[in-house]
Amino acid sequence: MRSITATMFVTLDGVVQGLGRPDEDTSGGFAHGGWGPRYNDEVMGRVLAEGMARPGDMLFGRSTWQDFTTAWAHATDGNPFTAHLNAATKYVVSRTLKDADAWQNSILLRGEAVDTVAELKARPGGDLSINGSASLVRSLHAAGLIDRYTLLIHPLTLGGGKRLFDGPAPLTEFELTRSVTTTKGVIIAYYSRR
User: Fold this and answer.
1) Is the pTM of the predicted complex or chain greater than 0.70?
2) What is the CATH number of the domain that holds 56?
3) Does the residue 24 lie in any domain?
4) CB neighbour list of residue 77: distance below 8 Å, 6 or more residues apart
5) Residue 26 falls within a domain, yes or no?
6) Would you say residue 32 lies in a domain?
7) Where is the Bacterial bifunctional deaminase-reductase C-terminal domain (predicted)?
8) Which tens digit of pLDDT belongs to each residue from 146-190?
9) 186 lies in a domain?
10) Which SS3 state, helix, strand or coil, does residue 81 take?
11) Distance between CA atoms of 127 and 5, rounded to whole angstroms?
């Protein structure tokens, strides 16, 4: 059985919305987009590169997949993240997407997220990683399908925005297996389900 690891960039008050750009996700009137890049440093880059060097496939919700497609699908910048993202098998979970042809090596999982991902997880294959896709992560967490979290906890609060665990989350215990602190105060914490 495959395992699922969710990597989430999060503020101290649990916000995961609009990390990268002011226009990334303005839903609900969110006006703090682009809060993350000023915290990037060589330590974070190295740790994220280590994660991407592990074999496995990627899992996306529709919105994040579409956003990543715009940013990465046609990039030719020589960035090692670009090469990894474009080469990886990418599963996109959606009830509304017609196809996943916009980004190479993408496979559409049509239907309810919990059902389609549980079926994918049970199949033989590489482990699955989720980057972002907060709605998908919440659904899969509630169904007990997330095995590990890598949380990049940023030293700021935003006071509003979509949170990692908006709404009910079942009692689930995790063990801290590793942590790294960046030069800009981001704590990268690795948790495994007990």
Assistant:
1) yes
2) 3.40.430.10
3) no
4) none
5) no
6) no
7) 3-187
8) 999 999 999 999 999 999 998 778 899 999 999 999 999 999 999
9) no
10) helix
11) 8
**Which residue segment(s) compose the domain that 153 sits in?**
4-16+39-170
Give DSSP secondary structure letters for 24-43: S--GGG------SGGG--HH
Number of domains in the chain: 1
Give the Cα separation of 162 and 18 in Å (integer).
9
Neighbours of 94 (CB within 10 A): 21
Sheet strands (E) in the chain: 4-11, 57-61, 90-94, 106-110, 128-131, 148-154, 174-181, 187-193
Residues 48, 31: Cα–Cα separation, whole Å:
27
What is the amino acid identity at position 156? L
Angle subtended by helix axes 80-87 and 42-53, to nearest 10: 30
In the chain, the percentage of residues whose pLDDT exceeds 70 is 99
> Is pLDDT at 77 greater than 80 in this prediction?
no
Look at the chain and count its residues.
194
